[in-house]
Amino acid sequence: MLVGAFVVYISLSSIYLLLPPLLAVLFFAFYRVLARHDLIGLIAVVAMLLVFEAEKGFWFASTVLFFAFVIRYLIPKIEQVVQCRICMAAIFTAIAYPGYWLVMWMTNQVLLLGAPAVDWHMWLYVIIEFLILAALV
């Protein structure tokens, strides 16, 4: 049911550009289900990430691979240094939006493809999703 509601929401976020696509929230959910070893939750979050990618036109499983890599190698090092929960919400948001865009940009440059577009909506999404994650953390 949660995946179905997300499909409706992500479709509406493509129509109404002021609705954030919840990429940082999905990143945080992916992190939480991996930390809890919750297989059913992992399947649901991966399904929502794949719907996000299909709706936004990103590469298949690119968010899943990027988030898994970041959670495996980068987040444990950050957690050793940063103990502030609000700071972790800011880090999750910064990794989700600008970090994912940077990785996609570098990959597209290597493969001689066009650069992904960035507009002012991305920064609005960063602010909104930081506030959402700050409430969740």
Would you mind describing this structure in some detail?
The structure is a single chain. This protein has 137 residues and is mainly α. The protein has 6 helices and no strands. It has helices at residues 2-15, 23-36, 39-56, 62-81, 85-110, 120-136. The longest helix has 26 residues, at 85-110.
Assembly state of the chains shown:
single chain
Q: First CA to last CA: what distance?
A: 23 Å
Q: What composes the largest sheet?
A: none
Mean pLDDT: 89
Helix content estimate: over 70%
Helix-strand string? HHHHHH
**Count of beta strands:** 0
Q: Key features?
A:
137 residues; mainly alpha; 6 helices
Overview in brief:
By secondary structure, this protein is mostly helical.
Write the layout of secondary structure elements.
Layout: H1 2-15, H2 23-36, H3 39-56, H4 62-81, H5 85-110, H6 120-136
